[in-house]
Amino acid sequence: MTNGIEAKIRANGLRLTGQRRLIAQVVADAHDHPDVTELHRRVARQDNRISLATVYRTMKRFEELGIIERHEFLDRRARYEPAPKRHHDHLIDVDTGSVIEFRSEEIERLQALIARELGYDLVGHRLELHGRRRTSRKNPE
C-alpha cells in the first residue's frame, strides 16, 4: 500500500481498482486542498483515460466512507484533503486562496467551554478563518 487512503479503502471493503489507486495517490500527494477539476488534471497527467466524471464519483464515494474530507472555502468550490488523523482548522488567504492548516489547543478548549456553558456537549466543529497577510509598515497604527 502506498498511502493511508489505500488502507482506508481496503478497510471499508471497497475494491481498489487501478483508477481508484491513482486518484487516491494524487489526493495523498496533494499539499494543497484541490478541487475535482484540479485533481482530474493531476490524474490525467498519469492516465488520460480517467474521466472527470470518474474522479467526481470516486471523491463522492471516498467522502461517504470518511476517507477524505470535503471543504468549501471562499470560492465555494468543493475542495478535498485526506481525512486527518488529528483535527485541525483552516486559515484561508483571501487574496491568494491559499489554505493554511493549524491547530490551537486554546481554541479547542474555548469551543468546548462555550458549548458546555450553553448546555451542550461538543461533538464536532469546523473552524475557518479568512484573512489577508499583513504588510510590514514603518509606522504601524
Give an account of the 3D structure.
The chain is of the alpha+beta class. The chain folds into two domains: 4-82, Winged helix-like DNA-binding domain superfamily/Winged helix DNA-binding domain (Arc Repressor Mutant, subunit A); 89-131, 2-Layer Sandwich (Dna Ligase, domain 1). It is 40% helix and 16% strand. The chain contains five helices and five strands; from the N terminus they run ααααββββαβ. Strands 4-3-5 form a three-stranded mixed sheet, with no helix packed on it. Strand 3 (89-93) and strand 4 (99-102) form a beta hairpin. Helix 2 crosses helix 3 and helix 3 packs across helix 4. The longest helix has 13 residues, at 52-64. The N and C termini lie far apart (54 Å). The mean pLDDT is 88.
Q: What Rg is obtained from the alpha carbons, in whole angstroms?
A: 18 Å
User: What separation lies between the terminal Cα atoms?
Assistant: 54 Å
**Fraction of residues in β-strands:** 15-25%
Top CATH class of the largest domain: Mainly Alpha
- DSSP helical segment count: 5
Named CATH architecture of the largest domain: Orthogonal Bundle
Secondary structural class: alpha+beta
- H-E order: HHHHEEEEHE
Oligomer classification: single chain
Q: Which percent bin holds the helix content?
A: 40-55%
Low-confidence stretches: none
Which descriptor suits the 3D outline?
globular
Question: How many distinct folded domains?
Answer: 2
CATH superfamily label of the largest domain: Winged helix-like DNA-binding domain superfamily/Winged helix DNA-binding domain
